[in-house]
């Protein structure tokens, strides 16, 4: 694939769920005209115990999401699910429910956010099972898979491109998915080591004055990366990898002067790099290596007069083959639904007040 032509993120409006709600119809497989007369209908289907348990989990959160997004009445009594409302919305709800049922039957956990992700995939004419069924990593019965169309594009880009940039708000899975792919590549012996790095901007990258050995110095800045690793690997195995240098977690300043061959390298929080640091990092790339750079250009902690390397690099490298830029939006946030609204509210505020940095 031509990596610089990778999709830049979803093309549907960021308010896809709300626009659907205000429309006289959703996007139905039949594609019927707005002017058709709607009829009140009811559909029932029997589901397995596992599906019923998932639909009813978190205080009926999945069912509430279906009611809210599609303006239908949906009830679960034992193993019988009843959907009622106008025929257009019922047809759309049934299509979503069928996808949710298949996800549960293939071992996926579902929640309210899954409803939005399925609707988003349907809106973009994507195969839902292709998106959610791409298992990146398994650990102790837990499957790590893409949760949105953009996450699937991101996973595909990382697999196919030498350098991939994941740019977007917190909670969109940029770093977590990259780390899962790195661990999988290490397990499959596609690379010999994994290197995770962040700019320790709070200490100005000057770590010498801090107490303790290197690990103690950088721990506060790199703790989120350690947390993710412990979520993907057993503690003993991870500790062995780190003792041998197979997995290395270090601040960006420690990358200078190195050439990294046969490595999967992830630079997190890249919005806090200077242009010089970004260039230094990218030129560490050696033979047989893969680089993933993640960051949120709305959360730059550098001094106002200091340019962000992540913002600048988009203009410099966007047309180079082998490099992909994947851009996430608030609709890709896979944390609590309220986080999506908070992200969007801050984005609108920055645009209205002119306080946003140039992206």
List keywords for this structure.
2 domains, 13 helices, 43% helix, Rossmann fold, Ribosomal Protein S8, Chain: A, domain 1, alpha/beta, 359 residues, globular
> Roughly what is the average pLDDT, rounded to an integer?
83
Q: What is the count of helical runs?
A: 13
Q: Quick one: CATH class of the largest domain?
A: Alpha Beta
Q: Write the element-wise H/E pattern from the N-terminal end onward.
A: HEHHEEHHHEEHEHEHHEEHEHEH
Oligomeric category: single chain
The CATH H-level superfamily of the largest domain is P-loop containing nucleotide triphosphate hydrolases
Structure characterization notes:
The protein has two domains: 130 residues, 2-Layer Sandwich (Ribosomal Protein S8, Chain: A, domain 1), CATH 3.30.1370; 217 residues, P-loop containing nucleotide triphosphate hydrolases (Rossmann fold), CATH 3.40.50.300. A six-stranded parallel sheet has the order 8-7-9-10-6-11, with helices on both faces. The protein has a three-stranded antiparallel sheet with strand order 1-3-2. Strands 4-5 form a two-stranded antiparallel sheet. With 359 residues, the chain is α/β, with parallel strands linked by helices. The two termini are 26 Å apart. It is built from 13 helices and eleven strands. About 9% of the residues have low confidence. Strand 2 and strand 3 form a beta hairpin. The longest helix is centred in the N-terminal third of the chain and has 19 residues. Helix 11 crosses helix 12.
